[in-house]
Specification:
The protein is mainly β. It contains seven helices and 34 strands.
Length: about 525
Amino acid sequence: MRPSLSLLPALLLASLSAAPAAPAAAQPSDAASAGPAPALYAQHCASCHGATRLGGMGPALLPENLGRLKPAEALATIRDGRAATQMPAFAAKLDTAQLQALADFVYTPPAVAPVWGIDEIRASRTFDAEAARLPARPVYDADPRNLFVVVELGDHHVTVLDGDRFRPLTRFASRFALHGGPKFSPEGRFVYFCSRDGWVTKYDLWNLRTVAEVRAGINARNLAVSDDGRFVMVANYLPQTLVLLSADELAPLKLYPVADAAGHGSRVSAVYTAAPRGSFVAALKDVQEVWEIPYRDDLPVHAGPMQDDRAGAAGRSAALEPRRIALDDVLDDFFFDPAYRHLIGASRDGGKGQVIDLDAGTRVATLDLPGMPHLGSGITWEWQGRPVLATPNLKESAITVIDMTNWQVIKRIPTLGPSFFMRSHAQLDTAWIDVSLGRERDAMQLIDKNTLEIRTTIRPQPGRTAAHVEFTQDGRQALISIRERDGALVVLDTQSLTEITRLPMAMPSGKYNVHNKITRDAGTSH
């Protein structure tokens, strides 16, 4: 039996709770290659980051995992270390040329392609043997549905925040570079995190402790949790797989090698839960397919270009078996309509979007979406009696509003710059967007959901990046990230727009309200 997480030292439990990856030693070491950098890595780095850079006590050091870390930042980390972690400084041990050689080396693809299969996943798993005996009630007096989970990227921590008093209940170290929004169990007790280097962490928000971890891939994109609380699905870039885990102890159940019907492999851009359909839906970055994987055995199969991997399924697809939907183009990102019948997606090349009827498995409309729409941050609301979808854009300074009854563009709302995040709340008549990808990155703009015009522009901290807004469960307060290393979380009254408080934080990124996420409020991402 693996040791209980509760028996590990506090720092190790908080940030490095899994043992070094077992398969790393089984692969040929990069140090076998000629040249000073591999030898330096083997001497100074392999004990923590793995002989093949797949990670161990430290994160994986592969180009695919370092997309958020600029080379200059990597050099500084090797030279100066990283505060509040076990990463030491090497400035006193290595000269300038050696430091640079190591920094260049971690951005070089390994000579042997890394392997991460079901055996490696299973060997990486740790769990708290006492988890089943933990109290089935919160250990604090805060409202558990009005908690916020705040991801701080500056020093790789997570803060659990009381959304009534705006006081942290706890702060703990996370895995390196959490990627994609955390997801919650149906009742909101557990939150699941996914790091860029494939670690999945299950955290008990009622008892404020980590209860399980597993490494599901080498470079992961995000995860999804089934609405019945049984399964977790993880999307990977490297290897090109989807991984199904049990939600209770994160035990690996099934690994899906991802390839189209012709055998061409693909990275997985994202996976989401389509709760009313009882299925996971995955976007594939490199092939013209979308996969739907039902976790209930009651999803109809329709005639047309959609293919069912289980032939002769008596009109129904097999639970946990992928159904392929053939597309005219790849989809990097997508959004569901409120009924979860239609998938609205676009590739990062921009220009056009697709509307796919998931029941029939066919395209029903083409959308005019210039630039690089960020549909994963889209939201919906009722406008003049019609459901509309509004999506930000990563390249264009505009919000596109689409009529979801006929899939026509109603309006493009000019903004101060490209936007990454867009949020609202069922109780608000405004939609809030950042313009953090443009020059006026300190601004946040509020769109009137009735007039489709910019109502006002606020600057929570002039000159500092404002990014990602989330609301309390009643929509009365807005929480905005000042996304700087010496940043803050700013809390505003949503009606008067006056500041209530601010909490210093280390580059706060996303923040996620339990109630809004588990009820799938129309104003938040799903």
